[in-house]
Amino acid sequence: MTPTVNRKKPRALNTLMLIIGLGLLMWLWAQFSLDLVRQALMQAGWGLIPLGLLGLVWMGWDVLTTAALLPAPRQWGRLFLLEWSSDGFSRLIPSAGLGGEPFRYRHLRAMTEEPAKVVLAYRMFHAISGLAATLVGAALCAYSGISPGHSWLHLVALAVGVMLILVGALLWWRPFPLATLVRGQLPKLVSRLFQVVEVAFILFLLGQAVTAERVLLIQACLAASTFLFAFVPGGLGVQEKALMLACTELGLGAEIGFQVGLLRRCRQLLWAGYGMLAAIWLEAALGRDSGSLEPSGIAGEPVAHQSLE
Asked: What is the DSSP letter of 72?
């Protein structure tokens, strides 16, 4: 008999990392006064509404990644809402970005006969694109001479090494034809490119000048912290610390870094809230479709959904 303690170890480790991350986040935030919180929220003002919807800038590319792995005809409306709600769950359930994958799998079962393969391939695309973002940001910082005290080239080498391992594993596994894998990976890379809009818009809301140097260094530090501390659920604490270090390096001060981190978390919570509305609609639609099915006699046959239109 397999000891139950072995199955509990990954969950216990994830819980420990979550506690450590929350502790670091609380400790960092405790270093600053509530006046800075009030000031950040007042400066953002009504800008919090578009900030909460900023994910729409890059989410369409994520939808294209999933769609590339699904058979035609694709249900674009549901795929869009599924991406939104799955990402919302991942924000609300810090678990190395995996909180929304059970929900994604549940709804993909109605769109394909191989939902697990689609989810795993999507996660590999996500990891590879994250490493690419880390590599590009660090390389540009090294080339431009931004913050020369940091070991950008070491980070580049590490990111390249890990990315080559993941790409090799994906090609060895080959869950889909090579052309399909390329069509799925490219939109995810474009999605990462558009995510720099988040940093630029938050700096704008805080009344700070938006320059290429500032956006580049802050985004590079964020990507590096996400890569190096991927075991910390949600990047809690470590991303905030990276923002403070980047803003201090740029001469903006740790206080601005604190406010940038605060508004980032506000954006994620607002985005997750909208995503929960999408999840409610998807669950209701799935229930309606399941109730209207007639026995087909074929086990595991995917459910044919109607489009949103």
From this structure: S
Closest CA to 121 of 169, 61, 84: 169
Q: Are 132 and 192 in contact (CB under 8 A)?
A: yes
Q: How many CB atoms lie within 10 A of CB 45?
A: 9
pLDDT band at residue 295 using 50, 70 and 90 as cut-offs: low
Nearest to 292 by CA among 278, 306, 281, 280: 306
Q: Taking the domains of the chain in order of start, what are their residue ranges?
A: 23-284
**Residue 43: burial class (beta carbons within 10 Å; 0-12, 13-18, 19+):** middle
Using CA atoms, how far residue 187 sits from 11, 33, 65, 184, in Å, is 32, 41, 6, 6
Tell me the residue ranges of DSSP E strands in the chain.
Answer: none
Assigned token pair, 237: 């604490």
User: Of all helices (H) and strands (E), which one includes residue 198?
Assistant: helix 196-205
Distance, CA of 214 to CA of 179 (rounded, Å): 37
- The angle formed by the CA atoms of residues 189, 190 and 192, to the nearest 5 degrees, is 65
Give buried/exposed letters for 111-126 (b at 16+ CB in 10 A, else e). beebbeebbbbbebbb
Q: Please give the share of the chain, as a percent, with pLDDT higher than 90.
A: 40
pTM for the model: 0.83
Q: Are 202 and 260 in contact (CB under 8 A)?
A: yes
Q: Is the pLDDT of residue 13 over 70?
A: no
Q: How far apart are CA 45 and CA 41, in angstroms?
A: 6
Q: CB–CB of 196/100 below 8 Å? A: no
Does the pLDDT of residue 62 top 90, yes or no?
A: yes
Determine the residue type at 15: T
Cα 20 to Cα 237: distance, rounded to the nearest angstrom: 9
Question: CA-to-CA distance for 28 and 26, rounded, in angstroms?
Answer: 5
